[in-house]
Amino acid sequence: MSTEPSRQLETFPNPNAERDYIIRMRLPEFTCLCPKTGQPDFAELHLEYVPDQLCVELKSLKLYIWSFREEGGFHEAMTNRILDDLVAATNPRFMRLTADWNVRGGIYTIVTVEHRQPDWQPADPAITESKVRV
């Protein structure tokens, strides 16, 4: 099995596609490069989604996140690109990605982006704040 960075996001069939449920992940080690200075930028990513027919496989997600370490990009562009790639791979009912970027020049940046299938409406408890810190 490969341990090299990869942009290939693997999926597996949702074992309970008939039900809305939330998958939450915390990815504390995201790294890319500042497009202006080439210095590393660090973020903690928070991913939550309601899968439809597919779920993202965790090792492939780890290798995908790792693939950005040598790439430059603005915080907003990186966050949107990751969401777009995850949506393209899984076509979830709902997905939210929050990137909590480490301080740069005295400024903390948090970027939150969302995707929602046009006809999907969450059940009341489907999208709520977690009592557990993810």
TrEMBL record:
It is found in: Cytoplasm. Its main location: cytoplasm. One of its GO terms (molecular function) is preQ1 synthase activity. It catalyses: 7-aminomethyl-7-carbaguanine + 2 NADP(+) = 7-cyano-7-carbaguanine + 2 NADPH + 3 H(+). Signal peptide: none annotated. GO terms for cellular component: cytoplasm. Belongs to the GTP cyclohydrolase I family. QueF type 1 subfamily. Catalyzes the NADPH-dependent reduction of 7-cyano-7-deazaguanine (preQ0) to 7-aminomethyl-7-deazaguanine (preQ1). This is NADPH-dependent 7-cyano-7-deazaguanine reductase. It comes from Ectothiorhodosinus mongolicus.
